[in-house]
Amino acid sequence: MRRALWVLAPLVLLVLCGLAIALGPVPLGLAGVRDGLLGVGDANAIAIVRAIRLPRLVLAVIVGAALGMAGGALQGSLRNALAEPYLLGVSGGAAVGAVLAFGAGVRGAFAIPIFACLGAGASVAAVLLLARAAGGRADPRVLIMAGVIIGAFANAVIMVVLANAPPNTVRGAVWWMMGSVADAGWPQIRWLGAYVLVGAAVLLLMARDIDVLALGEEPAAALGLNVDRSARRIYLAASLLAAATVAAAGLIGFVGLMVPHIVRAFGIRRHRALLVGAALVGAALVVAADLVARTAMPPAELPLGAVTALLGVPFFLLRLRTLA
Amino acid sequence: MIAFREVSARYPRDRRDVLDGVSLVAAAGSVTAIVGPNGSGKTTLVRLLLRLLPLRAGRIELDARPLPTIDARAFARRVAVVPQRENAVFSLPVHEYVALGRYPHEGPWRAATARDAALVDQAMNDAGIAELAGRDVRGLSGGEWQRARIARALAQDGAALVLDEPTTFLDVGHEMAMFELFAALARAGRAVLVISHQLNLVARFADAMVLLHQGRVAAAGAPATVMQAAILERVYEWPLVVTRDPAVGAPTLVPLRGRRGSSGRERSRPPEPPS
Amino acid sequence: MPRASGRDDFGGELPRFAIPPRRIVSLNPATTDLLFAIHAGPRIVGRSKWDLYPDSARLVPSLGDALRPNVEAVLGARPDLVILYASEDNRPAYDRLREQDVAVIALRIDRVEHFDRTARLLGSLTGNAAAGAEVADSVQRTIARVRDATRTLPRPRVFWRIWDAPLITIGRGSFLSQLVDIAGARNIYEDIAAPSQQVTFEDVVRRDPDFILVGPEGGQIVARDPAWRAIRAVREGRVRIVDTTLVGRPSVRLGEAALHLARLLHPDADVR
Asked: For C65, which residue in chain A has the nearest alpha carbon?
């Protein structure tokens, strides 16, 4: 059963990547795609394949992998199968950062992502501090509650800003919040890729700690884990990974939630394997969702966050049935 | 090997100490038992050992070294602790669960060795769960789960073993088997520290007993010293007698019926033996 | 404010064409309309889904939204000139197209003077400067005429209800406010600099306009909703329905729009 994942996941990912390059609102044909990739032939086709579809695909892969891993790490360390990467204030904070940037009319390709990242960072810090002040050192329940509180506060701030903002700002902010990999550019991808690589390496190094944390606070301490320190590090690493994806692509929900379940359904339990599997499945999922977003109603595009949510609902209905 | 010296502790937001000047020693090669009513502070001792609660006063020592000087992992290599309760949130096969006991000995780069596997198998055998190796921990019965947790602690291969209420869900046979195991481990040189409600069982297997009452040591010493009706009645606030059955070879506590049946806590005279 | 010639509204250099562009993508109702007016309609190979005027524009393939356009679709039309609306939403697409060496300009068309400049600019870019100038001048003449005709008339105070939930009106930053001014009236919210602004109902009551301008659906709502009777103008029957096809955007029909407004607001005068 486990082996099946290691064969299926890369295969599916590869096929989806191929489809993502080959399909789009402009029909290119297989020859056109091949020529475009190689850089020969029609300049337009080359531009479409190399400058539009390829960076988009790479961004989708990076975002999906990061979200999958962050979700897996958080579910294990918070001991909650419904945890997801945005739980500890990431989405609210990032959205506040982005909305404030839109409202202030900030310009430049990196402006919104930087603001979103700062917002997410501030929000995660607020959640951790709030949880500590409430006395729950690394208690998952207190953390989750703190995350909900900060998230609600962030929503309130967003609503206040948008209520008094001109229509352009509102539209831009709402579009950003719905999630998209449409604005993928190579410079941005380089940064994100490096960042995600580091974050993923950190999580993989701590995978064994997650195994132990998943047992509970007392058993983990009994096995010699410094529960506070390890838990905090994992939350931070996972949240910062998620924050980077939000900065780059807006809010893309359900991926971090669904992917670990899919990997676990193949019988994978140890977190080292689980995180790697989650990266593969997460990448495949976001690439598939973006494919749907681009080709469902051409030439209009569906928001990526909407497609992942639409995929998520039936997934969880199925899951509920198998659980019951 | 493990020594608590004049230990006091208090939970945050509590006004009174949960432990007040408690001293006890769990020596190598012996079974030491901590007994006492609910709320007397027994589990708090385990929490202090795991550093989940700060000390308000006193010292805890391992091999005569103060606890704060010992790294958590090094401590876990030396002392295996089985906390009172644990929930299994995620599915995991039993043998992998037990194998997590090797965590203190691993590093991020070190792969599992043959010795690790051998220790895990040995632990499962000792705990009597060898045949459950492939089962999901979430599907185990209460007793099987408890034995799996003990197996994990055994796999840690520490010189000391600390168990908080290890036999709550076990039937008579398994319970006796566990205590026989603890005694065997002690004979082999380990220090075994058991917290248990089962006074009678403890009295038969322990080399030393410590009776806690409202955060203080009410009595300590060999079972015969601690198992005295007067002390126990005062501490447990229930009428009882302590008998000694030659077949058992250890003092046995027998609780008596209260005046108002089972709900009252009133003292009453023991019923007249039928003539 | 119209920029110094040579740059578009994103600060980019205006393209120079050796021969006029033959494949134009215009993602903006105003510029599509204008291109048809200066006889460049047949050269349009792609429009936004909002570009519905003139009628022949509907025959041009739609490439999607005017904001955050689908860059791939635009490239697929092989344009030699792309015209985008200068909103920040479009900056990523603008940059992406520039990277691919496609001639792209971003224009702001929010005010009467923007329209004038755009008409002349598109005229010169498509190699038909005369047509562009003609359109711009014709609009200017009509506007001047309307101004003259209403110069001596009393200036009624007007509230223009753009949207209902929330209640939105125009500030002096909008060309509609300019039209109101040209038509010899005053926008009661000309103290607001932005093109549009959300306002409260009570504030409108307090400012006590002489006329209310609404679109056709808005007219029905105002007629039926008893709350609106708190405004004197409603009670006195001075709600005027505006032809939204004329005033939807600054277009070649700006002059007509000004005329239309002047007639609505000065029913007793004979404005031509």
From this structure: A300
Give the containing element (helix H, strand E) for A190: helix A186-205
Rounded to two decimals, the ipTM of the complex is: 0.84
In this structure, the dihedral spanned by the alpha carbons of residues C24, C28, C29 and C35, taken in order and rounded to 10 degrees, is -30
| Pair of tokens at residue C204 | 């409108």
**C164 and C78 share one domain:** no
- Our answer on whether C and A touch (3+ beta-carbon pairs < 8 Å) is yes
Give the CA distances from residue A276 to residues A101, A284, B244, in Å, rounded to whole numbers and listed in that order: 35, 13, 62
CB-based contact C76 A300, cutoff 8 Å? no
Please report whether residue C19 resides in a domain.
Answer: no
Check whether residue C116 and residue C174 sit in a common domain: no
Residues of A contacting chain C (CB within 8 angstroms): 24-26, 44, 47-48, 51-53, 102, 105, 107, 109, 163-164, 166-168, 171-172, 175, 182-183, 185, 298-301
Domain identity same for C111 and C52: yes
Cα angle for residues A263, A269, A273 (degrees, 5° grid)? 70
Contact criterion met (CB < 8 Å) for A81 and B89? yes
Residues in chain A with CB shorter than 8 Å from the CB of C95 are 109, 185
CA distance B249 to chain A (A): 35
Does residue C270 belong to any structural domain of this protein? no
Q: B93: buried, middle or exposed (CB in 10 Å: 19+, 13-18, 0-12)?
A: middle
Domain that holds residue C230: 153-265
For chains A and B, CB pairs below 8 A equal 73
CATH assignment, B2-255:
3.40.50.300
Kindly report, residue by residue over A36-54, the tens digit of the pLDDT.
888 888 888 888 888 888 9
Q: Kindly list the domain boundaries of chain B, sorted by start residue.
A: 2-255
* CATH code of C62's domain: 3.40.50.1980
Contact B81, B162 (CB under 8 A): yes
What's the pLDDT tens digit per position in A193-208? 999 999 999 999 999 9
Asked if the C-beta of A215 comes within 8 angstroms of chain B's C-beta atoms, the answer is yes
Q: pLDDT tens digits for chain C (272 residues)? A: 333 458 888 888 898 888 999 999 999 999 999 999 999 999 999 999 989 888 899 999 999 889 889 999 999 999 999 999 998 888 889 999 998 889 999 998 888 999 999 999 999 999 999 999 999 999 999 999 999 999 989 999 999 998 877 888 999 989 999 999 999 999 999 999 888 888 888 889 889 999 999 998 888 888 888 888 888 999 898 999 999 888 888 888 899 999 999 999 998 877 76
Interchain proximity A222–B72, CB inside 8 Å: no
Are C111 and C41 found together in one domain?
yes
Residues of chain B with pLDDT under 70: 108-110, 259-275
Q: Which two tokens stand for residue B252?
A: 């046995």
C86 lies in the same domain as C164:
no
If you measure CA to CA, which chain A residue comes closest to C101?
A: A47
pLDDT of residue C82: 96
Q: Considering the domain boundaries, does residue C14 fall inside one?
A: no
Cα–Cα distance for residue pair C62/A217, rounded to 1 Å: 59
Q: Find out if CATH 3.40.50.620 is the number for domain A2-323.
A: no
Residue C271 covered by a domain? no
